[in-house]
Amino acid sequence: MMNNLVLADTTELDFSAWALSKQTRLEQMLDLALVPADLAPKTLHSAMRYSALGGGKRVRALLCYAVAELCGTDLNVADAAACAVELIHAYSLVHDDMPCMDDDDLRRGKPSCHKQYDDASALLVGDALQSLAFDVLSKPKLLNDASLQLSMLQILAQAAGSKGMAGGQAIDLAAVGKPLTQAELESMHHLKTGALIQAAVLLGAISGSHKQIAAVSSFATNIGLAFQVVDDILDVEADSSTLGKTAGKDANSNKPTYVTILGLDLAKQHAQHLYANAIAALAPFGDNAQRLSALAAFITQRNF
């Protein structure tokens, strides 16, 4: 038993060190991609850096890096993909927090962009961060195969658009105060949360074989939903300081969640079921998928 405990502790420490190194690397990539705050228009550039730097667990970027390692994708390509995905994610958070959307004053433990600056600046910040994501991913000769690089742009565009994240947000807003079935809720979150997680994984796997891409795509489908289930649970159980955003926001806004549909205990069971499915999808990789397995545990076992 002691040997197993030591092995578990070592694995956890190894994952923590790896995650920290990738989070640090991503921060450097984002810093280089973002325009300096002292260049005009200064308020816009300052607000972009405020919203994109120095916060969040960077789960999407970590997924991208882990899959890139698994599939042999060049590190420079993984850097660009992880950076682009996080810029899209940052833009979505800025817009989601605005009064016309979810109207939240707190994000990543600090005032949301529209509170720190103003509504007009926040709108422009989201627009500019989205554009920058595609700028990063379209750099000349990022890949020797131009058609493969074009595929990366298409993956990200579809994940961010009306058939992905933006569409999911539209469904979410329309569902406030309305009862949804579990299937309807999962369909919404496949778009709102899952699409960008799926994109992060597919971009990391851009150099992989068809078999590898199919396996990590299945992994992403399950872990993307698990991520949202856990978010819904934490919205009930965690406080604002832990979450870095306003706790209880979904319940106060009368939004359908996994907790309101399933109840707390069944929601937790569902998260574990999705986690098990994600791990099963990694079976073809054997021990080589330990990084992704650790990430799946990190996503599904946050504080409950």
Key attributes of the depicted protein:
mainly alpha, Farnesyl Diphosphate Synthase, 304 residues, globular
Structure description:
This protein has 304 residues and is an all-alpha fold. It has a single domain (9-300), classed as Farnesyl Diphosphate Synthase. The protein has 15 helices and 2 strands. The protein has helices at 2-33, 42-52, 59-71, 75-96, 113-116, 119-137, 146-160, 165-174, 182-204, 210-237, 240-243, 249-252, 258-262, 264-281, 290-300; strands spanning 106-107, 110-111. The protein has a two-stranded antiparallel ribbon with strand order 1-2. Helix 4 packs antiparallel against helix 6 (119-137), helix 4 packs antiparallel against helix 9 and helix 9 (182-204) packs across helix 10 (210-237). The longest helix has 32 residues, at 2-33. The radius of gyration is 19 Å and the shape is globular. The model is unreliable at 1-10 (pLDDT under 50).
Chain-wise SSE layout:
Layout: H1 2-33, H2 42-52, H3 59-71, H4 75-96, E1 106-107, E2 110-111, H5 113-116, H6 119-137, H7 146-160, H8 165-174, H9 182-204, H10 210-237, H11 240-243, H12 249-252, H13 258-262, H14 264-281, H15 290-300
Antiparallel strand pairs: 1-2
Helix pairs in contact: 1-4, 2-6, 3-4, 3-9, 3-15, 4-6, 4-9, 7-9, 8-9, 9-10, 10-14, 14-15
